[in-house]
Amino acid sequence: MILRDYQWRIVQHILDTPRCAIWAGMGLGKTVATLTALDTLSLTENDVTPVLVIAPLRVARSTWPEEVAKWTHLKSLSVAVITGTEAERRKALKQRATIYTINYENLPWLVDHFGERWPFKTVVADESTKLKGFRYRQGGQRARALGKVAHKYVRRFIELTGTPSPNGLADLWGQAWYIDAGQRLGRTFTAFTGRFFQSIPMPGGYSQIKPLAFAQEQIQDRLRDVCLTIDAKDHFDLQAPIVTPVFVDMPPKAMRLYRDFEREMFMQLGEHEVEAFSAAARTVKCLQLANGAAYVGEDNQVWEEVHHAKLDALEDIIEEAAGAPVLVAYHFRSDLARIQKAIPKARALDHDPRTIAEWNAGQIPVLLAHPASAGHGLNLQHGGNIIAFFGHWWNLEEHDQIIERIGPVRQRQAGYERPVFVYYIVSRGTVDELVMARRETKREVQDLLLDAMKPRT
C-alpha cells in the first residue's frame, strides 16, 4: 500500500471528523484515501457500515468498485452497485456488502424504498456540489431526498469535491448543511445570505446576491475545522502533468461485435457489411469501435453508432471540472460529430482566430481539437489546464504536442501556478490499451500490432 503523505492527511481527517468535507482537486486520489479511511473505521468502530456512496453514474458504477479491487489493502471491503433498472437495483440491495454505490438520479427512489428503515450509517457524497441546491422547501429533488435522512439516520457524512464553490460562495451553504445542519453558516439559506451577502437590484425586477467584503474570510473560518483542502501545487512538481486513465466498459453487445471483427476482420453493422483487408485496417476499425462508432462506407463518410460509453465518461469529466474549461482531443470525424451532439456547448477548433481568442478568454467551456491540427505554435494555456483524450492514435509527436498547448511549461510561462490534468478515456480490453502501452513503454508500433492480432484464448 503506497499512499502519498497528503492522502494520509485525508485519511486522518475522515477518521477524526465524523462529518467532514475533503476539497481535493481532480486526480489527487481522494477516492482511495476515503476507502482507506472507511476500511479502518469498519474494523475499529461500530455503526459505520453499511456505507452509501452517491456519485455520478459512471463513477458509481465503475470507479468505486475498481478502486476497491485495485488496492490490496482494501480486500476486506465489498461493493454492491445500485444502478440500472428498478429490478437490478433491488437485487443489488439484497447483496451483503460493506459499500453500496448509487447515482444521484436514483436517490429519491432509494429514500422512498427504505423510508424509516434507512440502513446506511455512513454516506459519502462524491462530487458534493450536486447538493449545493438544497433548501428546506425548495431546491433539487435529489438533495431534498437526502436531506430527509442525512441527520436523522446517518452518523458519518463525507463530502468529496475539487470545486466546492464553482459559482461562488453561495454554493457552500447547501453542502455545509449536510455536515452540521446549519450550525456554521446558518440554519436556513435565507439566514446565510442575510449574514454574508447583499442583494443588488437588476433590470426587470430581479436581484442578485453579492458577497460582502468579509464573507469569504469568515465563511472559511467557520468551515475550517470540518473541511480539509488539498492543493495539487503543494504536493506535485508542476512540470509533470497529473495523469488519470478513465476506463470504460463497452456494452456486452458492442464488445461481442468488437471481438468478432477483431477475429474475423468482418462484421455486420446495421445494414452494412464492414470488412478489413489488412491488420492495419483492422486496427483502425477497432479504434473506431472502441470510441463508439465505425465507418461503414469505403469513402469514410457514413458511420454507425455502436455505444456511448466514452461519451458518458467525457460528460462526467466535464461535470467534475465544474465549469473549468476542458480541451478534448478526438481522432475521427465521427467522434467530433457525436461529441458535438451529446455536448452542445462544445466548440470545434477551426481556422477562425476568434475561436482561439475566445477559448483563451474563458468563453468556450469545451474545445474539441484534433491533435494533428493543434500542434506546434498554438497557445491555448490561457483557456484552461485540463485535457481529455476521447480517442487514441499511434502518433506520439501529435499526442505530446497537443498536451503541450496547455502544458506545464506554458502554464508557468503565462504566470499560472496550476497543474495540468490529463485524462485518457480508454475502452477496456481493446486496442486503446495497446496505444496507451505504446506511449508508456515506447514499444514499436509493429510489435503492438502483432500482439493485437494474436488469437485470443
Describe this structure in words.
With 457 residues, the chain is α/β, with parallel strands linked by helices. The protein has 2 domains: 5-234, Rossmann fold, CATH 3.40.50.10810; 236-457, Rossmann fold. It has 18 helices and 19 strands. The strands form 5 sheets. Strands 3-4-2-5-6-1-9 form a 7-stranded parallel beta sheet, with helices on both faces. The protein has a 6-stranded parallel beta sheet with strand order 10-19-18-15-17-16, with helices on both faces. Strands 7-8 form a two-stranded antiparallel sheet. Strand 13 (293-295) and strand 14 form a beta hairpin. It is globular. The two termini are 32 Å apart.
Based on secondary structure, the structural category is alpha/beta
As laid out across the biggest beta sheet, the strand order is 3-4-2-5-6-1-9
Low-confidence stretches: 443-457
| Measured distance between first and last alpha carbons | 32 Å
CATH topology of the largest domain: Rossmann fold
Give the biggest sheet.
7 strands, parallel
| Outline | globular
SS element count, helices: 18
CATH class of the largest domain, named: Alpha Beta
CATH architecture of the largest domain: 3-Layer(aba) Sandwich
